[in-house]
């Protein structure tokens, strides 16, 4: 068995904006490599502002987008192997399940919610018949704090957003997956109920031994729930490692900026903190994408792509700063992304 539950190797996704002749390439995911260990269930948060590429990365893990280059592996099995030999179909959906941002878009207004749950148990061969399916559905609903009698026979518009998201979580648990990918699962829920869902992830991690990839722009919930954090900026993972190390002793200047943008009650901001709008030229940069706003910028940052530096055994940062702006200290590893762009 592979030592990693999830592994991304030099994954890139290039979109074309506009026509074939005069269009612009947008590298939405740029040479991303990270892993989630299989030994113990854990939660990996992918954090970044809107347009950072985190949702595209989630869609790649969920097989909703194909990477332009690179590999995605679940327990050592490739998802996009040529010839169809990779992890596919029912085996994939037993291993990986999604939770989407808007629960009201995950269920049709014309179909009873409980039918989605029964169908998941029957089509994935988790239950042999309707009776077994009902027992499984009742169990997973109970695990998220709901009773089958409260859900059965009702439609999506008869539930609150928080209740419907809990039902989404319950549906994802039916095949007993190894990994759940949750894309901004609390952003459409009232602030007073968000921590209920986040706490639920922690409980289910232990109860079902399931790992999560939690996509979010909210550093506070990411810090609270995560074992590992990946910080994304303009398609690149600029810092990755254990959450305690990332958020208490950040290395990358963008992580510092994100942390400065979180308000606290004990002091006022001493300077303006601005997270800029998307700029295509930053996605296309062949040097450091953050260089124009970095307070530590050096000439080398505007000339070459920074290396992925191994800061500690479990921690990496895409920056010259940890190596003292020494271009010889670590070699940039960009062949995957560059070859992908050349092929488009």
Structural commentary:
With 344 residues, this protein is of the alpha/beta class. It contains 13 helices and twelve strands. The longest helix has 17 residues, at 191-207.
Secondary structure: elements and pairs:
Elements: E1 4-17, E2 24-37, E3 43-47, H1 54-61, E4 69-74, E5 77-78, H2 89-95, E6 96-99, H3 103-106, H4 113-123, H5 130-143, H6 148-151, H7 161-173, E7 179-183, H8 191-207, E8 211-216, H9 219-225, E9 228-233, E10 236-242, H10 243-248, H11 253-260, H12 280-283, E11 308-312, E12 315-318, H13 335-342
Parallel strand pairs: 3-8, 3-9, 6-7, 7-8
Antiparallel strand pairs: 1-2, 1-4, 4-5, 9-10, 10-12, 11-12
Helix pairs in contact: 4-5, 5-7
Instruction: Return residue spans where pLDDT drops below 50 for at least 5 consecutive residues.
Output: 330-344
Strand residue content: 15-25%
**Biggest pleated sheet:** 8 strands, mixed
Shape: globular
* Element-level helix/strand string: EEEHEEHEHHHHHEHEHEEHHHEEH
Q: How many individual helices?
A: 13
Count of β-strands: 12
Helicity level: 25-40%
């Amino acid at each position: 068995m592979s030592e990693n539950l999830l592994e991304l190797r030099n994954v890139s996704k290039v979109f074309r904006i506009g026509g074939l002749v005069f269009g612009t390439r947008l590298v939405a995911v740029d040479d991303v490599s990270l892993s989630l260990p299989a030994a113990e269930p854990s939660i990996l948060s992918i954090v970044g502002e809107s347009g950072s590429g985190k949702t595209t990365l989630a869609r790649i893990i969920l097989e909703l987008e194909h990477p332009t280059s690179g590999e995605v592996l679940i327990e050592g099995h490739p998802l996009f192997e040529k010839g169809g030999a990779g992890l596919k179909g029912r085996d994939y959906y037993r291993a990986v399940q999604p939770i989407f941002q808007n629960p009201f878009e995950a269920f049709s207004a014309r179909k009873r919610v409980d039918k989605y749950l029964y169908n998941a148990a029957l089509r994935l061969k988790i239950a042999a018949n309707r009776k077994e399916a009902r027992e499984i559905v009742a169990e997973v609903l109970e695990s998220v704090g709901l009773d089958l009698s409260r859900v059965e026979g009702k439609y999506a518009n008869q539930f609150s957003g928080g209740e419907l998201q809990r039902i989404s979580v319950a549906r994802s648990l039916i095949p007993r997956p190894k990994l759940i990918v949750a894309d901004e699962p609390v952003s459409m829920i009232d602030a007073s109920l968000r921590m209920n869902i986040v706490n639920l992830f922690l409980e289910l991690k232990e109860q079902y031994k399931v790992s999560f990839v939690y996509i979010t722009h909210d550093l506070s919930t990411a810090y609270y729930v995560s074992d590992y954090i990946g910080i994304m900026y303009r398609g690149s993972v600029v810092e990755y490692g254990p959450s305690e190390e990332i958020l208490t002793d950040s290395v990358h200047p963008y992580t510092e900026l994100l942390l400065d943008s979180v308000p606290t009650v004990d002091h006022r901001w001493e300077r303006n903190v601005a997270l800029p709008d998307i700029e295509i030229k930053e996605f296309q940069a062949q040097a450091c994408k953050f260089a124009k706003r970095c307070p530590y910028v050096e000439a080398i940052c505007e000339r070459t792509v920074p290396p992925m530096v191994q800061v500690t055994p479990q921690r990496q940062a895409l920056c010259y700063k940890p190596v003292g702006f020494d271009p010889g200290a670590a070699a940039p590893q960009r062949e995957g992304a560059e070859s992908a762009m050349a092929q488009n």
